[in-house]
Amino acid sequence: MEVDAKCLFCEQQETHDHLFFHYRYSGQVWRLLLQKAQVYRVVGTWAEEKRWCIENLGGKSFKQRLRQLVLISVVYFIWMERNSRCHGGTAVPPEVVHKVLSVVQQRAISWRGIKRTKENWLLSLEWIIDSSVFV
User: Fold this and answer.
1) What distance in Å separates the CA atoms of residue 105 and residue 100, rounded to the nearest whole number?
2) What is d(CA 67, CA 38) in angstroms, rounded to the nearest whole number?
3) For 11-45, what is each residue's pLDDT tens digit?
4) What is the CA radius of gyration of the chain?
5) Is the model more confident about 104 or about 84?
6) Mean pLDDT across the stretch 80-97?
7) Are the C-beta atoms of residues 112 and 126 closer than 8 Å to each other?
8) Are 131 and 124 a contacting pair, CB within 8 Å?
């Protein structure tokens, strides 16, 4: 069985690098959400991003948990949109940013005992996370 390797969003060659980071829309999503998560760097290849995550996303601080959730959510929603198009779904551009914002807000509200530091407070304002998470 032959598999079509064209990107379902733009008809270019589909690779992990292209789909998740270098397709114009997904690249914009990453830049916007990484900036909101206070990550200021250029997005690289799949392998580079995987290595960066392993080296930088450990820990259970508020910032790290938020960054982990953003990463998981963006990959999930881009992949779901791709699968929807692949299996006959609509070709409406995904609203990944809004979906990720919603997931972060919904999940973070269940977090408790977060230290009320300036950095955490500013992150909570950026992501519109209720102040009830703080001790």
Assistant:
1) 9
2) 9
3) 888 888 888 888 888 888 888 888 989 999 888 88
4) 16
5) 104
6) 73
7) no
8) yes
